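Supplementary Methods. Inverse-folding protocol.

Structures were first reduced to a discrete structure-token string of length 215. This string, shown here, constituted the complete conditioning input.
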């Protein structure tokens, strides 16, 4: 099972969602993202939000077509995306993909990147990805990983999310590394590229944000 969550970020940054409509995919809408899904003839199984970013007419359309609506007051401790993601992690899917999570307000973007930590805090190893037209973003804990070349996402960056990331090793990359220590705020590992069909990266401590991008 895969859970796809669409938030209300700028529509022009969305990838082609038809590429993510696997038979086992469950769609979830967040606030205005619910309306974006309906417009694409995708009826979400669940909808989360205070719905302060839709008109009354749009809200009526949502309420007419979506049965699993969880409506909240605007004054709450969690963002709408956080509420949806918490629910998704509890379902223990194979992976979770977040769309409409970039662009617009920077505070929302930074909050959504930090929400990638949710499975770690829940002790649930589900993979969560933020996806838009130009980027795929995910995080990794210490370990050894294989990464495949993608023609549509040429560049790969590694950004520390914790104070320190230790013994970072990159093999099969244009700019390889061997047991390097990188600190929070470092730009050492921005815009790398794979030189082979596959490469590997590993580290022993910390948390890394991995960003796959194209121009």
């Amino acid at each position: 099972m895969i859970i796809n969550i669409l938030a209300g970020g700028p529509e022009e940054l969305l990838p082609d969602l038809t590429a993510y409509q696997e038979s086992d995919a469950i769609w979830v809408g967040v606030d205005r993202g619910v309306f974006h899904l309906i417009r694409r003839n995708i009826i979400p199984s669940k909808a989360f939000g205070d719905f302060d970013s839709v008109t009354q007419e749009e809200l009526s359309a949502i309420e007419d077509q979506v049965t699993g609506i969880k409506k909240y007051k605007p004054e709450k401790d969690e963002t709408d995306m956080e509420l949806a993601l918490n629910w998704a992690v509890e379902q223990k899917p194979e992976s979770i993909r977040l769309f409409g999570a970039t662009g617009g307000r920077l505070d929302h973007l930074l909050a959504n990147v930090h929400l990638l930590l949710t499975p770690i805090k829940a002790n649930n190893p589900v993979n969560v990805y933020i996806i838009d037209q130009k980027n795929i973003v995910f995080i990794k804990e210490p370990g050894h990983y294989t990464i495949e070349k993608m023609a549509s996402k040429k560049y790969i960056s590694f950004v520390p999310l914790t104070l320190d990331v230790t013994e970072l090793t990159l093999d099969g990359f244009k700019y390889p590394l061997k047991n390097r220590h990188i600190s929070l705020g470092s730009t050492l590992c921005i815009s790398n590229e794979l030189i082979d069909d596959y490469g590997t990266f590993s580290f022993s401590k910390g948390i890394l944000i991995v960003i796959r991008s194209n121009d």
